[in-house]
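thread: overnight batch results

M.L. [08:02]
morning all. the overnight job finished for the chain we discussed friday. pasting input first so we're all looking at the same thing
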Amino acid sequence: MRTHPVFLRLEGRHCVIVGGDVAAAGKAITCQRAGAVVTVVAPELTPELAAAVAAGHLRHVDRTYQAGDLAGALLCYASTRDSGLIGRLRAEAERERVLLNVIDTPDASGFIAPAVVERGELQIAVSTGGASPGLAARLRCELEAWLGPEYGPFVSILGAVRRALAADPARRTGVLGQLLASPLLELVRQRRRDDIDALLARIAGDGLTLEGLGVALEERS
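M.L. [08:03]
and the structure it wrote out:
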């Protein structure tokens, strides 16, 4: 069955993680980084999860899942092999209209979490529809080797220019097209700040410098 790819905006939305193992920790941290309000329901936590809870980044319900835990949530990740628990989670997720992913169990999931490559604001997702998670992971590794860290600040520059020229759509389109065709990416890779500023001034106009755009050449996670 084909799936529909989508990126969710999670800022301020409630996400529930059922389970406290390494797989659950990865999903919890990813959701938290996206701005979600994350609740982890588990009697035991990995050290990473425990540290995040202690720092106030995650909420922790110190017990196993109970009916009602998904109320008000947008999505839920569950790390479990317990078929009975999976059945109860699916029933509540359907009743509460919550997106449910049972990690490594695509047939029990309402959505599939792809393998993701991140370079700053750039995100590339790879999915085989659950047919071969190993292949998706291998393709992710190949993409990570191909996409250097320079893509993070490169995308940040393009986004900042796009916002700066928002009042003039025609000019914005032309400037961004010229920047994409220019040596900007290579200049970012070499961290040639002065040459980047000169290129921005020539194509985008005076005042659009790295400092003025608020962009650092170091990739930000």
